[in-house]
Write a structure and sequence with these properties.
Largest sheet: none
Number of strands: 0
Distance between the termini: 33 Å
Radius of gyration: 18 Å
Number of helices: 5
Structural class: mainly alpha
Order of helices and strands: HHHHH
Helix content: over 70%
Length: 135
């Protein structure tokens, strides 16, 4: 069995767009899912009051939850597309690392979470690491 020979790699902007698609859809999915879970409330309390079926019903009747899952599915397919055209050694660390950064920004802006100095420092170091990876 032989592995396929690598085809020509896309240009910088095409690769950046593929990674950006992964990062943005993943971040949107995670923020929407987190917002959904906050709007639903404590699942343990729901389960204690309405049973497991009640907790499941609370999740599957929340539109934000399905919006989040839809964006996470788009992120997965964007990842598949990127892996079809780019090297795993670039796509995996770049998308995962940059998603960490965008999640911190989105958590602060949209979910009003407290993102402390340690997390911002980690996000900056991640950006530096991705820069070194890309060059």
């Amino acid at each position: 069995m032989t592995l396929p020979t690598p085809s020509a790699q896309p240009g910088f902007w095409t690769a950046a767009a593929m990674i950006a698609a992964i990062v943005l859809t993943s971040t949107a999915g995670e923020v929407l899912t987190a917002a959904a879970m906050k709007s639903i409330g404590d699942l343990d309390e729901i389960r204690a009051h309405s049973g497991l079926k009640g907790a499941i019903r609370a999740i599957v009747t929340c539109p934000l939850f399905f919006a989040g899952v839809s964006f996470l599915a788009l992120a997965f397919f964007a990842l598949l597309l990127a892996l079809n055209h780019l090297n795993l050694s670039l796509v995996a660390p770049a998308s995962a690392s940059l998603t960490l950064v965008t999640n911190a920004i989105a958590a602060k802006l949209f979910l009003k979470e407290n993102v402390d100095r340690r997390r911002w420092t980690a996000a900056i170091l991640v950006c530096v690491g991705v820069y070194f990876l890309a060059h």
